[in-house]
Amino acid sequence: MSESDQNSAAKVRRSIPRHVAIIMDGNGRWAKQRRLPRIAGHRAGVKSVRRVVEQCIEHDIEALTVFAFSTENWRRPQKEVGLLMELFLTALEREVKKLHDHDVRMRIIGDRSRFPVKLQNRIGEAERYTAENRKLTFTIAANYGGRWDITQAVRKLARAIEGGELQADQIDEKLLQSHLQLSDLPEPDLFIRTGGEQRVSNFLLWQLAYTEFYFTDTLWPDFGKESFSAALDSFASRQRRFGRTSEQVERQEA
Ligand code: IPE
Ligand code: IPE
Ligand code: MG
């Protein structure tokens, strides 16, 4: 490879996010447009998840984190919540083997203690079964909330203080971060929200501090390969400055 080829390969690599986080929104509206029950939208949404996992593998993205059920989603009609739990279970049963065959490590973040026991067991099995896989870390946020995440980390630190193993002055950002979910992954580079809403809805609050945001009106069940490419193109066109000036960043890149 010539030096200029190496440089351009490095540039292409630099513009691909290592970690993509997605709020998969718009399933209900997708179903409504078709006069179908909301659950039909959620079912179609599972297919979009599969497509995006494939796209991440194709683009050598290291981590994908998707928001499947928020701590606030318990406020939905009981029937929808029940059907979502069933769908989660069947999707797990159907997809885990395929994910494993693609060398995908699967993890669930969130407070799983509120889920049906059968679902909790399946989640544990899926995580153990795929634990050694390395191609892509695929995380599903279920009964997850950014505030819950920060609170559970703080509780762990408080316990350590109570036990005399830690002093308040020793708490810094790095230590708090190490107790959050996803602490072993690079922070998300690209955040995508489908369905037209432009809000974070209590997703990864701490971890999104320097993430690039991308919003699209496309409803989640319609989000396919082209939509994902458009998001990646948008990401590639941005200059991430992390507080520095663009001149500093350009000098560093040269
Ligand atoms: C997102 O789609 C999926 C979940 C929150 C479980 P919605 O169900 O929120 O779809 P809309 O926003 O009603 O269209
Ligand atoms: C956010 O979607 C949560 C998930 C996609 C799981 P919602 O549709 O629940 O968000 P809000 O309530 O409109 O902000
Ligand atoms: Mg919604």
Question: Describe it for me?
Answer:
The protein is an alpha/beta fold and 254 residues long. It has one domain: Undecaprenyl pyrophosphate synthetase. The protein contains 9 helices and 6 strands, in the order αβααβαβαβααββαα. The protein has helices spanning 3-14, 27-33, 38-58, 78-101, 117-130, 146-162, 173-178, 225-236, 246-253; strands at 19-23, 63-70, 104-109, 136-144, 190-193, 212-215. It has a 6-stranded parallel β-sheet, sandwiched between helices. The two termini are 19 Å apart. The protein binds 3-methylbut-3-enyl trihydrogen diphosphate (IPE) (2 copies) and magnesium ion.
Strands of the largest sheet, in order across it?
A: 3-4-2-1-5-6
Briefly note the CATH topology name: Undecaprenyl pyrophosphate synthetase
If you average the pLDDT, what whole number results? Answer: 95
CATH architecture: 3-Layer(aba) Sandwich
Poorly predicted segments: 3-12
Number of domains: 1
Distance between the termini: 19 Å
Order of helices and strands: HEHHEHEHEHHEEHH
Q: What is the share of helical residues?
A: 40-55%
Strand content: 5-15%
Could you say which small molecules are bound to this protein?
A: 3-methylbut-3-enyl trihydrogen diphosphate, magnesium ion
Number of helices: 9
How many DSSP-defined strands? 6
Relevant CATH superfamily: Decaprenyl diphosphate synthase-like
* Cα shape: globular
* Helix-strand makeup class: alpha/beta
CATH class identity = Alpha Beta
Report the sheet with the most strands, covering strand number, pairing sense and barrel closure: 6 strands, parallel
